[in-house]
Amino acid sequence: MNSSNSIKTKDMAYIALCAVLLAVCSWISIPFTVPFTLQTFAVFCTLLILGGKRGTVAVAVYILMAAVGLPVLSGFRGGAGALLGTTGGYILGFILTGLIYWLSEKVLADSPVIRIAALVCGLAVCYAFGTAWFMYVYARNTGPVALGTALSWCVIPFIIPDLAKLLLAVVISGRVKKLIRF
After folding, report:
1. Which CATH number is 9-177's, of 3.40.50.300, 3.40.50.1220, 1.10.1760.20, 3.40.605.10?
2. Nearest Cα to Cα of residue 59 among 69, 46, 74, 45
3. Which residues, listed in sequence order, are joined to residue 37 by a DSSP beta bridge?
4. Contact residues for 127 (Cβ-Cβ < 8 A; gap 6+)
């Protein structure tokens, strides 16, 4: 097998570590009017440290761990029911964030500004996908909800904290990436 296209054992170990980082960060809840977890921080760190390909695989592994029932989601939840619930679209949207980051690596020049812009775009797509998912599931279970209401519940309270987590991830991942050799 061609080693440039295959995932090496060291890569698999880093992917597994980042999938565990995602789980641990989802358990850390910061109490506020709306509680915040460090999930998005872990997604940003994973992508910045491992790169788009490995990072997206790590996010997919995390989601598969949740799908099979491991309690890796916030509140120690897991299972298909948690992923298919009203907020499951935001979790699944993490894969879209990874794919956008990966695409930016392939198409655009490698610079800190491009990496940050790719993560911001990925976060926006994650918000859009998650909100559409939320509105669909909420309407099926409870009744229709207006877009403005869904955004005020699910997106607006998280914008500033998620951007702060992104900046923190940029700083931390820059230091960690110097210690890792692929």
Report:
1. 1.10.1760.20
2. 46
3. 29
4. 90, 93, 154, 155
Structure tokens at 168: 């923190």
| CB neighbours of residue 54 within 10 Å | 21
Q: What is the C-alpha separation between 166 and 62, in angstroms, rounded?
A: 19
Residue type, position 91, single letter = I
Digits of tens for pLDDT over the chain (182 positions)? 455 556 789 999 999 999 999 999 999 998 877 779 999 999 999 999 999 999 999 999 999 999 999 999 999 999 999 999 999 999 999 999 999 999 999 999 889 999 999 999 999 999 999 999 999 999 999 999 999 999 999 999 999 999 999 999 999 999 999 998 77
